[in-house]
Design a protein that fits this description.
mainly alpha; 68% helix; flat; 7 helices
Length: 288
């Protein structure tokens, strides 16, 4: 549909002119006497008065500029008001149709969203993707555009779902390997506890965090080294007790041996267990 009536301006643009050159020449002549002035303590007040006189020229021109800008702006404001008055006729005709079209557009988007959701559910079932992984699907807002074809959307969704399914399988495989490895490490720790018969046994958790990402052979070596170290410490403590057992006894009846309290800070679980083993072998009283 062509609009046969075209808006035209019936009056040519006005060119604003003012006596710029005359004012400039006048200001230059009047202000010439102020050039080269030097402010001293003796003439300070006179120079302040001179500066104020100069400022009057500026404020006069500023005032003139603001007044004329307002005058020049008014025709533009009137023009915009007139255009808006005409546009209201257009809006009154456009708004009812736009609202109805919006209703059908939203209905179409809702229907397309439901179709997409059904296809996503179909892909979730097809690739056996669990809910927590299905939530990782990144929806593209462009899918709801009118130009977006459902075939292309389905291709995109299926491609992403395949990648998510691979990620899920990879995580499952890792968990399975970890579970099997955990059972093996538990067996190794139990066997070592039976073999070394420690006063303070080494627990599974004490070893697991250190070796869980190691190859099994390396993990066995690390665990055996840990048990050997604990065993040697307990043996050394036992020998020390046997050698020095009577040196710290009460020398006379009623005489109390001197005692000391030692505080140890910032130990991890492994270090704490080593200290406890030593204290128990020496027969010392302790609190944790």
């Amino acid at each position: 549909m062509e609009i046969n009536l075209t808006p035209v301006v019936s009056q040519k643009e006005q060119v604003f002119k003012w006596n710029k050159d005359e004012i400039k020449t006048y200001f230059e002549a009047q202000l010439e006497k102020y050039k080269g002035l030097v402010v001293t303590e003796e003439n300070y007040k006179e120079m302040v008065s001179a500066k104020n006189e100069i400022v009057k020229y500026r404020t006069t021109l500023d005032k003139f500029c603001k007044e004329k800008k307002r005058e020049l702006k008014r025709p533009i404001e009137l023009f915009e008001e007139e255009v808006n008055e005409v546009l209201k006729v257009v809006y009154d005709a456009e708004k009812p149709l736009a609202e109805q079209i919006k209703y059908f557009d939203e209905k179409e988007v809702q229907a397309k969203t439901e179709t997409i959701n059904k296809f996503i559910k179909k892909m979730v079932e097809k690739y056996n993707v669990r809910a927590e992984y299905a939530e990782q699907l990144q929806r593209d807002k462009r899918w709801l555009n009118k130009t977006a074809k459902m075939k292309d959307i389905e291709t995109s969704i299926e491609g992403m779902m395949i990648e998510i399914a691979k990620r899920q399988q990879s995580d499952d495989d890792y968990k399975q390997i970890l579970a099997e490895k955990k059972g093996m490490i538990e067996f190794v720790v139990d066997t070592c506890n039976q073999q070394y018969d420690l006063v303070t046994p080494i627990g599974f958790q004490e070893c697991w965090l250190t070796v869980k990402d190691m190859p099994l052979d390396q993990a066995r070596e690390v665990i055996n080294a840990k048990f050997t170290e604990r065993s040697e410490m307990e043996l050394a403590a036992k020998q020390s007790i046997e050698t020095n057992h009577f040196e710290n006894e009460v020398k006379e009846v009623g005489e109390v041996s001197e005692c000391a309290t030692v505080k140890i800070f910032n130990l991890n679980n492994e270090e704490l267990n080593d200290v406890i083993a030593f204290l128990e072998m020496r027969g010392y009283e302790y609190e944790v």
